[in-house]
């Protein structure tokens, strides 16, 4: 997924290069003024599409959220290394290769691919759109091929949002600093998000004076590409100025009603062809539901467009699963002039989406041209469309007939072009916070159909598996499930009120909250919303989770001696390593006895590689198994009906204490 921190807005947005695809020519980088000679464009190609892998190294590990290393690789961690392309000697400003907090640069560590020429690493500050101020620069002298560290003396102060650039002297024949070019596809180890949004142009060290401002607005010497340089900054930052919280703030999602928010709902310069387009930069920032679509039908187009919601599935870097597909047909009422069209989806058929799902557009192979008005940078120049509003898009020669809902597809095809594109299209969106009740989707096998929930005051401990085998979107659904279960009860310390606690486990156990941490429903729901749900281990130590429950959750920390205890294990597989399976089963039986008096429930999560975990789940669960196990694929994890079914069992067990 492309998730960039754009220095223009000092906010998380999707930044991209201005690359234009022509079916008969190679990848072409163009500027807003290059509308003439294809020959000129082809010549410029050799200079434009070079990605530089540079990173600045920071001394020591800063506490809090400030990193000690800024630069390559973009996702953090790892060392600088050789990358395949040495590139030319034009300047490259990586505008989303930013420092996330105020601090000082101590040194630069980089990998040199060519020993001949000096290079310069620089730090820039945004003044306004396209205008940057040079804060400082450091010479990386010519030396041997390999990894090198160059100290910065005196240490150079930087501000949050400052970004890294690489440039050279006019006489330099090659880049020297190892780098990678996204559009050459030369490094399969790097993902799309490992590259930086880069200004690339014919500027050199003798033009760059520290403290001066430079206008890099589009001209015939400036282009926009995706690059990464093998260079890191050793950085000592001020945690008080660090960016706090996740890139996507779920608290703001309730005010979000369309995705993307920057869609231009008007006629754009072109309709495009009928190839499939997956906008990997057009991301849903929150969990929620799609209630419909708005789009601008391009004048004269009468075909059917299909909008897909896709989810990254891997392991290949461009491998996605199609979750939903919606047809946008033409009818006579729309006429030939085009215009704004709204397509509503009935509530019972709302499309469930997860954070980081993306939008795609595709057509039937029988429709020769596109339907939804859109723009790429070359044509966008005539319409004053900012390049920062466009999304990195995978474009392949595939059609609606090739895509089935539920199917997984590798977009890394021989026909693949990676292009920036903006569609006059947006999804109508409703946020789904963790305790938001969605209507059930499909046949829920009778789970929880308007059944009463007995209120006999259970003490419930959730044990949630967050090992690597559990998909991220499934973990999101688990928090919805937990919250919906809580919503079925009156919460508090009273005899007929329920109490809740939770831990998560993989190879280790992480305590989340105890039975007496919160005695209000809102407090418990807030605890669930803040649950640690990162995938964090390759083992599933159910035995450790049950041992921790016996030692820290039951018979202490708010557990009530006269109320029924319920342990709810939520997992996608068996205890692993398998030698610990008997220990896990023995601990489950221990919890049923004095002084714990617990019933053990197992909720199975979908996992395509699971090898019949049902037997082990039955062994963990209290007898009778049919009353204490919930096995996929009879339900969707986040469905309210499942939560009601589990809550009903919990309430019944609490009222029928042994």
From TrEMBL:
Gene3D superfamilies: von Willebrand factor, type A domain (3.40.50.410). It comes from Owenia fusiformis (Polychaete worm). The lineage of its organism: Eukaryota, Metazoa, Spiralia, Lophotrochozoa, Annelida. This is VWFA domain-containing protein. It comes from the Eukaryota. Residues 459-650 form the VWFA domain. InterPro entries: ECM_Assembly_Org, VWF_A, vWFA_dom_sf.
């Amino acid at each position: 997924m492309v998730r960039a921190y754009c220095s223009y807005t000092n906010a998380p947005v999707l930044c991209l290069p201005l690359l234009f695809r022509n079916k008969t020519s190679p990848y072409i980088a163009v500027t807003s003024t290059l509308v003439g000679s294809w020959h000129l464009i082809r010549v410029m190609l050799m200079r434009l599409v070079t990605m530089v892998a540079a990173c600045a190294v920071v001394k020591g590990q800063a506490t809090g959220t400030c990193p000690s290393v800024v630069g390559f690789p973009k996702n953090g961690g790892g060392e600088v290394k050789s990358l395949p392309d040495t590139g030319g000697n034009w300047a490259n400003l990586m505008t989303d290769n930013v420092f996330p907090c105020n601090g000082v640069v101590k040194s630069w560590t980089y990998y040199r691919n060519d020993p001949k020429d000096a290079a310069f690493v620089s730090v820039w500050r945004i003044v306004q759109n396209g205008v940057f101020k040079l804060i400082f620069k450091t010479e990386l002298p010519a030396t041997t091929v390999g990894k090198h560290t160059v100290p910065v003396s005196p240490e150079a102060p930087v501000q949050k949002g400052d970004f890294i650039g690489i440039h050279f002297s006019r006489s330099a024949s090659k880049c020297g600093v190892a780098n990678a070019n996204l559009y050459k596809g030369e490094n399969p180890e790097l993902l799309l998000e490992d590259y930086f949004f880069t200004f690339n142009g014919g500027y050199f060290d003798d033009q760059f004076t520290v403290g001066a401002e430079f206008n890099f607005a589009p001209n015939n010497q400036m282009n926009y590409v995706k690059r990464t340089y093998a260079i890191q900054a050793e950085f000592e930052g001020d945690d008080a100025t660090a960016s706090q919280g996740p890139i996507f703030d779920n608290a703001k999602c309730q005010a979000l009603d369309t995705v993307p928010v920057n869609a231009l709902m008007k006629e754009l310069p072109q309709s495009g062809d009928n190839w499939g387009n997956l906008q990997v930069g057009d991301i849903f920032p929150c969990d929620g539901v799609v209630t419909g679509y708005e789009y601008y039908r391009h004048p004269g187009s009468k075909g059917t467009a299909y909008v897909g919601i896709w989810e990254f599935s891997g392991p290949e870097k461009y491998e996605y699963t199609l979750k939903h597909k919606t047809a946008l047909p033409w009818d006579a009422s729309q006429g030939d002039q085009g215009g704004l069209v709204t397509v509503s989806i009935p509530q019972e058929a709302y499309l469930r989406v997860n954070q980081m799902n993306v939008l795609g557009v595709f057509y039937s192979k029988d429709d020769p041209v596109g339907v939804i008005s859109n723009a790429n940078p070359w044509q966008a120049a005539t319409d004053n469309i900012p390049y920062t509003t466009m999304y990195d898009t995978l474009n392949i020669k595939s059609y609606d007939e090739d895509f089935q809902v539920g199917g997984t597809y590798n977009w890394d095809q021989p026909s693949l072009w990676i292009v920036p594109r903006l569609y006059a299209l947006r999804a109508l969106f409703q946020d789904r916070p963790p305790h938001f009740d969605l209507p059930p989707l499909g046949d829920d096998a009778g789970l929880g159909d308007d059944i009463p929930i007995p209120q006999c005051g259970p003490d419930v401990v959730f044990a949630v598996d967050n090992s690597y085998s559990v998909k991220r979107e499934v973990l999101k659904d688990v928090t919805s499930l937990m919250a919906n279960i809580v919503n079925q009860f009156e919460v508090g310390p009273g005899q007929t009120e329920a109490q809740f606690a939770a831990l998560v486990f993989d190879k280790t156990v992480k305590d989340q909250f105890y039975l007496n941490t919160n005695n209000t429903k809102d407090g418990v729901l807030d605890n669930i919303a803040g649950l640690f749900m990162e995938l964090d281990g390759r083992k599933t130590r159910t035995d450790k989770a049950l041992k921790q429950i016996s030692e820290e959750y039951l018979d202490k920390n708010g557990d009530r001696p006269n109320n029924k205890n319920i342990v709810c294990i939520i997992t996608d597989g068996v205890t692993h390593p398998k030698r610990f399976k008997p220990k896990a089963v023995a601990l489950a039986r221990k919890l049923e006895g004095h002084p714990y008096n617990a019933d053990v429930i197992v909720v199975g999560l979908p996992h395509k590689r699971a090898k019949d975990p049902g037997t082990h789940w039955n062994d963990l669960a209290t007898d009778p198994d049919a009353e204490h196990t919930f096995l996929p694929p009879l339900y969707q994890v986040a469905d309210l009906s499942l939560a009601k079914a589990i809550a009903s069992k919990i309430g019944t067990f609490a009222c029928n204490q042994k």
